[in-house]
Specification:
binds magnesium ion; 268 residues; alpha/beta; binds adenosine-5'-triphosphate
């Protein structure tokens, strides 16, 4: 499917604009996780995803930015079996996982951290992490040590109820919980949302650390500039379809992307 309607009033087609699927098809050949031409939505007859393509290669950190309501969370949810895919495919290491349920995806190595309500507030930090590891209780200790290396505060405060934590600390619990199952691919929905600039920075550093520890990551972010600075490759999603796909560096320097998407989104 081509998207000839994406750019541009002045007739100039920016290098990174998505005008056909060839870059996706070439890049996605060895992908860990890929989405092809997804149509999905919540209400009958209304598609929120309108042909979105996405792939992530082994060890890659991929960012998704775009305006509010573009369908970024819907795209992550569709990969994790939380939104019904009407057409198109999601493939994990060559296996068709389209519309597969979340618990089956967890056992196949996919982790997901939702945008909101991502901890059990009445449970302690440790209990939240035990919930994360319920499919592999024997490995709890080893995984707990792994996540405490990345988030030392969690080990120190393991007996504290998640509901009494700050927004930043809760986000760490949510990310740590998803890491307890040792995912090979982690889907993060706006991990820096609602945090102070200092804590936002910490979340980006921790996300990079997780990626460097070998976890492939797809990250949706409202802090678009910061996200593009750390990601290997980025997507701009607009109205449920790809508007741009390029390296983070190319996107952050693309005049059209700056004008259309970075000017109004959070300035880092
Ligand atoms: N559960 C739902 N039922 C019906 N419509 C929904 C539901 N969730 C999201 N939508 C609609 O789908 C569209 C895309 O929403 P989505 O949450 O995917 O956007 P987003 O790009 O993540 O936005 P934001 O940057 O605000 O998080 C919006 O128009 C939204 O109102
Ligand atoms: Mg969202």
């Amino acid at each position: 499917m081509s998207h000839p309607d994406v750019p541009a009033e002045d007739g100039a087609v920016p290098a990174s604009a998505v005008t056909d699927r060839s870059a996706h098809l070439a890049g996605a050949e060895n992908a860990v996780l890929r989405c092809d031409e997804l149509l999905a939505g919540y209400l009958p007859g209304v598609n929120i995803l309108n042909g979105a393509d996405l792939y992530v290669g082994p060890g890659e950190l991929v960012g998704i930015i775009g305006p509010n309501g573009a369908g970024k969370s819907t795209l992550l949810k569709s990969m994790f079996g939380l939104v019904n895919i009407r057409s198109g495919t999601v493939t994990l290491k060559g296996e068709d996982i389209t519309n597969m349920k979340a618990h089956d995806l967890v056992s196949r190595g996919v982790g997901y951290v939702p945008q909101t309500n991502n901890v059990f507030p009445s449970l302690t930090i440790e209990e939240n992490l035990e919930m994360g590891a319920f499919q592999m209780p024997k490995r709890f200790k080893e995984r707990f040590e792994f996540v405490c290396d990345i988030f030392p505060a969690l080990g120190e405060r393991r007996k504290q109820r998640a509901g009494s934590l700050s927004g930043g600390e809760r986000q760490m619990v949510a990310m740590a919980r998803a890491l307890m199952t040792e995912p090979s691919v982690l889907l993060l929905d706006e991990p820096s949302a609602g945090l102070s600039p200092k804590l936002q920075d910490l979340v980006f550093i921790q996300t990079q650390q997780i990626n460097k520890a070998g976890v492939t990551i797809i990250m949706v972010e409202q802090n678009a500039r910061r996200c593009l600075q750390i990601c290997h490759r980025g997507y701009v999603l607009d109205q449920g379809r790809n508007a741009y796909m390029a390296s983070g560096r190319e996107l952050i320097n693309d005049p059209k992307v700056i004008e259309l998407y970075l000017g109004t989104l959070a300035r880092a």
